[in-house]
Structure formats: C-alpha cells, structure tokens
Amino acid sequence: MVFGRGTRLFAGAVIVACMVLVGPSAPSGGLFARSMPVEAVMDVASNRVMTWNICNPCEVSNVDRAAEIAAYAPQVIGMQEACVRDVERVREYLESLHGLVYHVEYGTVLRSWGRCGGVPWSPGAYGQAVLSAAPMTDRVSVEYPDGGSEDRGYMAVTTMVGGQPTRVFNTHLAHRRQEEVRAAQVGVLAAEVARHDRAIVVGDFNAVPDASELARMWALAEDADPQCHPSASLVGTCETTTDWHSKFDYIFLRGIVPLEHRVLPSAYSDHHLQYADLDD
User: Fold this and answer.
1) Are 60 and 258 spatial neighbours (Cβ–Cβ below 8 Å)?
2) Geometric angle at alpha carbon 157, from 151 and 161, rounded to 5°
C-alpha cells in the first residue's frame, strides 16, 4: 500500500504526540516521570501549614504522596523521614500533575543506603524537608548532640505564612522509649524557638502531649488544635495522629492564632497528615 506525503506526516505527528503523552517510565512513584503540563496553576491556601511523616522505608508511590498533599494545597509543608530523591519527585509531581509550585529546603542528618537507596559509596540523604510556595531564607540544619538510636535533628527556614514572615521549624525526635534523649533534644530546639516571636514548629515528636519531655515546648507554644494540651491527653481530647492511635505529630504555634485544625488519615503512611489554617 502506498501512502501520500501528507498521510505520512500525519502519522508521524500522532507518534510524536503519543511519545509526549507517555514519556519515559519513572524510576519509582508509579505513572510516568513526565506528564502533560496543567493549563492553570492552582492556588495554595496561603495561611495553611501541614506536617507529615511520610514513612520510610515504605513502598509508597510518590505520585500518591503528591496527590495527598495537593488535595489540601498548603502554603508550607514539613516532611519527616524524607529522602531527598523522594521529595524531589513529590515536588515535580505537585507541579506537573497538580499545578502547585513549591520551593524546597532540606535538613538531612543521615546518609542511608537502606532507607534512601543509591549505592553504598553514595547513599541517599535522609531527614527533614520543607516545601513552601514562597521563597525561603536563613535555612539552618542542626543535628542533635544525641540522636538516640538514629541521628536526628531539626531544620528551620524563614518564609511567608499568612502574608507575614514566619520562622518555621521542622523536627523529628528520637524514637519511642528514649524519653531522656527526647528531653535533651527538645531543650536544644526550644532554646532556638524562644528567640522568635512568630514561629511554627512542626514535626514528629514521638511523644504524647502529657509526656514530660515536651514540657519546654508547651511553655513556649500552643498546639494548633486548641482542644489539645498536656492535661487534655488524659481525657482523650487530642486527636491521634498515627495508625497506633497515639498523638506524636504536632503543629506548635508561637505568636499565631489557629483558625482550623484537621487530622487526615492516609493510606500511604503510618502517620496521618495534619494541617492548620492560621489567623493572619
């Protein structure tokens, strides 16, 4: 069968279009590494802050992680147990699939082949990350003097939240049954938080609200859930944030008033997403 030149050109255009739509396979995270760009950029909630321990190591799609975040479109999100490679893919999917454009800063405290892949002589970086719709400045990354059973630390950035410059901290404290270690870590963190009149501290503290090691945080800030405070955990008014029905994840506010607080169970982590809308 003989085809005319116009027919061949049309067929070639169709093939190219299909290649653009499919793109190369993603190394992880399901779907494809590239997708058609969205037509319009979504708006973030400029006064919304989220925290999420994304679970590691877990066989979880970064496409799904991005979709979970995009459903609530926070201005700022702090991630814990985060590998740099995973965060980069989540960030790419947020933009390419959902039209949400974020800046990113890292507070990595560990290089781990087992957790983050790579090769033994060049393992992936692991720790905390902050995504913000606004640029971030004055980033610091601090490793606690005693991490406990695994290196732990905090990071901090200054960015816009609710239209105002805000110091945002993100941390992950030592694992359970290491109360004395966590108490020392909170001491390091609280000393820095105290220097700021307007601050948000998010993270996985691995401690329930009435745990003694959190006393210095409660002295400086309040939980975004106004019903949750140290004595409230004794009567069960603090929403749990983990699959094992404990509240370990916090959005502490200093000099900021919360408007709304939500805890959102996720199929993609053993910790729930948690966000707060803040009074400008």
Assistant:
1) no
2) 130
Reduced to 3 states, what is the DSSP secondary structure of residue 83?
A: strand
Q: Say how far residue 169 (Cα) sits from the centre of its chain.
A: 12
* Residue partners of 152: CB distance under 8 A and separation at least 6: 109, 143, 144, 171, 172, 173, 174, 185
Residue with tokens 């606690």, as numbered in its chain: 144
pLDDT digits (tens, 9 = 90+) for 203-244: 999 999 999 999 999 999 999 999 999 986 666 689 999 999
The span from the CA of 43 to the CA of 94, in Å, is 12
Predicted TM-score (pTM) of the model is: 0.85
- CA 168/CA 100 separation, integer angstroms: 20
Q: Which residues of 237-260 are buried (b: 16+ CB within 10 A; e: fewer)?
A: ebebbbeeebbbbbbbbbebebee
Angle between helices 62-70 and 84-98 (to 10 degrees): 60
Confirm if 236 and 218 have CB atoms less than 8 A apart: no
The helix/strand/coil state of 48 is: strand
CA 223, CA 93: separation in Å to the nearest integer? 30
pLDDT tens digit string along 141-195?
A: 999 999 999 999 999 999 999 999 999 999 999 998 999 999 999 999 999 999 9
Give start and end residues of each alpha helix (H) in 160-256.
179-193, 215-220
Residue 234 phi, psi (nearest 5): -75, -25
Q: Which is nearest to 49 in space by CA: 210, 252, 272? A: 252
Q: Which of 52, 103, 59 is nearest to 82 (CA)?
A: 52
